[in-house]
Amino acid sequence: MADYDLPDECLYTEHDEWVRMEMDGARLVVGITDYAQQELGDIVYVELPSVAEEVRDGQPFGVIESVKAVSDLYSPATGTVVAVNEVLADRPELVNEDCYGEGWLVAIEGVDAEVLDSLMDANAYRKYVASRAE
Prior knowledge:
Blueprint: E1 11-12, E2 17-22, E3 27-32, H1 34-40, E4 43-47, E5 54-55, E6 60-66, E7 70-74, E8 79-84, H2 94-97, E9 106-109, H3 122-133
Antiparallel strand pairs: 1-2, 2-3, 3-9, 4-6, 5-8, 6-7, 8-9
């Protein structure tokens, strides 16, 4: 299996999004994983929701397009979008270059903390990715 960067401070979804809690758990920052960006290849377009838009757990909130594929982005929780990485409109390649930093997608607030219990830690996600490769 290829070597993927999977930071321990993030949680992960089955849809290959990462979640990082900020502001004492009041805000979730969301992006796609290193595995996802490597599988997609060169990102050429990202469509994200508007600030103040409601997103629902497990439902699509946007689209990411690469030279190889178009994929939906799925919300890891129900809440309100409070920030969108608007830089990606002009520089979608940031998702490839720094998926856990400058390539983040959205920030969500008003999230039920119990939803985080259903997300995977880095070790569980690593095993999940490996099981898909078999």
